[in-house]
Write a structure and sequence with these properties.
Layout: E1 5-9, H1 16-29, E2 34-36, H2 55-67, E3 70-74, H3 78-86, E4 91-94, H4 102-112, E5 118-122, H5 129-141, E6 147-151, H6 169-177, E7 183-185, H7 187-191, H8 197-206, E8 211-215, H9 233-242, H10 253-294, H11 301-317, H12 322-344, H13 346-358
Parallel strand pairs: 1-2, 1-8, 2-3, 3-4, 4-5, 5-6, 6-7, 7-8
The protein binds phosphoenolpyruvate and manganese (II) ion.
Length: about 350
């Protein structure tokens, strides 16, 4: 089993004493690969603690000298990059408020050009995978060899369980596009409070993430930023002890055989599902042609209510959750509507696009 990379340390570097105490305790655990501390803090509102600035870089250098831990900090401008380089910072991460800004990303990428440093790119605050991917491309294009991604969740207007929504399907899609690029989870910024760190970290490990970045502070309640989500070094050790690190693969022949058999069953069901969906869509297209002849609206609310009610009832008998069946049926419904729309408004759409072409 390849042990996941663990990056830990305070949200912000606040004082030499806080940084050194924290780093020494973390180094003693023997479980930490790199020490993180924010030097320049991008705060939502002015007047909050905006970081100690370059002075704190001396403390990071000292951490490296005294503990041997690699050091990591956030960079958001070219000046940050140059300053961090002066003090031998090993890992520079790009924060969620920066990775979604192509100008900033390009500025940082240019400053990093030809430099041998590890760069970790956090997902942008908004759930836009292309922006995240674009940020990655800018860093890759200037020749950085060691690039990783950090999943820190996405902000949302609604106040939900977690401060930033994990939307796990987005990092999974990034991993599909970039299978060789490590994906690290930042449960601290997803959670926003201490209580969900374990469940988020475990989920990330179960999804085969390559590492975790966790905020640790000697006295979390007194922290100058993100105090609700930080934990003490002792709590950090307890958290790691509770996590189940699983193997990616097994060499047990019987296990492999059973797994292959079960996967063959799944593949078979998937084939059937796709074939059935094809048949279903063919029938809805036929309905579209009838509706067109009779000049009837595509969406008939009663019919949709009837379909979803029936599906939910059947789903509960088949031990499927209402949430799941709603997502599946909504997707099917939208596809049917799109198909019927294409049939019923065929001439209209072509005229419109001709109109558009002429402009
Ligand atoms: C941080 O890591 O302290 C930080 C500011 O993170 P993010 O960019 O994910 O908000
Ligand atoms: Mn933080």
């Amino acid at each position: 089993m390849k042990a996941p990379m663990i990056i830990a340390g305070p949200c912000s570097a606040e004082s030499e004493e806080q940084v050194m105490n924290c780093a020494k305790e973390l180094a003693q655990t023997g479980r930490v690969n790199a020490f993180r501390a924010g030097i320049w803090k991008p705060r939502t509102r002015p007047g909050s603690y905006e970081g100690i600035g370059s002075e704190g870089l001396k403390w990071l250098k000292q951490v490296k000298q005294e503990t041997g831990l690699r050091t990591a900090t956030e960079v958001a401008t070219e000046k940050h990059v140059y300053e961090a380089l002066k003090y031998g910072v090993d890992i520079m991460w790009i924060g969620a408020r920066t990775s979604g800004n192509p100008f900033s990303m390009q500025e940082i990428a240019n400053a990093l050009s030809g430099i041998d440093v590890t760069v970790l790119i956090k997902n942008p605050v908004n759930p836009d995978i292309e922006l995240w991917y674009g940020a990655f491309e800018r860093i890759q294009k200037v020749g950085i060899q060691n690039i990783g991604l950090i999943h820190r969740g996405f902000s949302s207007y609604e106040k939900l369980r977690y401060k930033n929504q994990p939307l796990w399907q987005l990092p999974i899609e990034m991993k599909r596009r970039l299978p060789d690029i490590p994906m690290i989870c930042d449960p601290s910024h997803i959670s926003g409070t201490r209580e969900y760190l374990l469940e988020i970290s475990q989920k990330a490990l179960d999804l085969d993430y390559d590492g975790l970045m966790i905020e640790v502070h000697p006295t979390p309640d007194l922290a100058l930023s993100d105090s609700n989500q930080q934990i003490t070094p002792l709590e950090f050790v307890k958290l790691l002890e509770q996590l189940k690190f699983r193997d990616r693969n097994s060499t047990d022949k019987n296990f492999i055989h059973v797994l292959e058999e079960l996967r063959a069953q799944v593949d078979n069901f998937d084939d059937n599902l796709i074939e059935l969906l094809g048949h279903r869509m063919a029938v809805t297209k036929q309905i579209g042609r009838y509706k067109k002849d009779e000049n009837i609206t595509i969406l008939q609310k009663n019919r949709w209510d009837e379909i979803i009610c029936r599906a939910e009832q059947k789903a509960s008998m088949a031990n499927l959750s209402k949430e799941f069946i709603d997502i599946v049926f909504n997707a099917i419904h939208i596809e049917s509507i799109n198909n019927q729309n294409a049939i019923m408004n065929n001439s209209l759409l072509t005229n419109e696009s001709k109109e558009f072409d002429r402009k």
